[in-house]
Amino acid sequence: MSVETRTTRITVPSIRARKGGEPIACLTCYHAHTARLLDSHVDLMLVGDSLGMVMHGMENTLGVSLDLMILHAKAVMRGSSRALVVVDMPFGTYEESPQIAFRNAARVMQETGCTAVKLEGGARMADTVRYLAERGIPVMSHIGLTPQMVQVMGGFKTQGRTKDEWPALEEDARAVAASGAFAVVLEGMAEPLAAKITRDIPIPTIGIGASAACDGQILVMEDMLGLNPSPPKFVKRFAALGPAIEQAVADYVADVRARRFPGPENIYAMKA
Ligand code: KIV
Fold this sequence. Notes:
Elements: H1 12-16, E1 24-28, H2 32-38, E2 44-47, H3 51-54, H4 66-78, E3 84-88, H5 98-112, E4 116-120, H6 126-134, E5 139-144, H7 150-153, H8 166-178, E6 183-187, H9 191-200, E7 205-208, E8 216-219, H10 221-224, H11 241-257, H12 264-271
Parallel strand pairs: 1-2, 1-8, 2-3, 3-4, 4-5, 5-6, 6-7, 7-8
Helix pairs in contact: 2-4, 4-5, 5-6
3-methyl-2-oxobutanoic acid (KIV) binds near residues 49, 218 and 220.
C-alpha cells in the first residue's frame, strides 16, 4: 500500500475565516531557500512587487514586469508546501480593464501554481476585484499607501493623517470587501483609521505601518531581518543579518588571503 504524504496549503477561506481571530502572520518572500525557511512559520507569503526594489535595486516598483513576478513566484512555490502564496500584480497589468486583469492574473496562477493575487486600489478597482473573484481568482486588495501610485502621490506618504482623508479611505475598504476580496492590506495608514476600518469591515485587514489592531501583519522580510540599511521607520528589526553577512564575508576574505582553505582530505577527516 502506498501512502501519500502531501502537505495541504493554507486556503483562502481559512485566511478569510481568521477575521477577528488569531492574528495572521505574513511576510514577503522572493526566492526558494527563504520560502523553505518561512513555510512552517507564516500563514501567508507574498511575492510582492517590492522585489523590484529589494532584489533588483529599482527606485520604485513601477518597472516590475509580469515575467519577473512569475519567475520569483515559481521559485517561492518550489520552496514551499504549506503557506498560502499570494503574488502581486505589477503596475500596468490590471488597471486598464477587468478583462485584461483576468488574463494576466490567470497567467500568474497557471504558470506559478500560486493561490491568489494582490492588486492595489480601493473603490476604483472594485469592479475588477469582483470580476476576478467571480471567475476563480482570489484577490487580496491593497489600500492606503499604494506604492504603484508613487508618482501621483509625490512620494511614499502615510495616508489618513487628517480626518478629511478618512471617508475616501473607508470607502475604499468597504468597496473591496463588498466586491469579494478575501483580505485587504492597509499600508502606511494612520493608526486610528486602520483600527476603525478593521472594526468596520467583514474581511481581515493586514497591516504594514498601520495598526496593531489589524487582523494580521506583513513586513518585507529583508527589512525585518536587518538587510536593508534604511528600512521604513515603523519596521522592527528581528535580526541584524546585514552586519552578520558583512562579518562573514570579511572572515572568508581573510581565510582566502591567508591560504587557510582545507583540501578534500581534510573534509573527509572532519566527517569521520
Ligand atoms: O510589494 C510588497 O512587498 C507589498 C507589501 C509591502 C504589502 O505590497
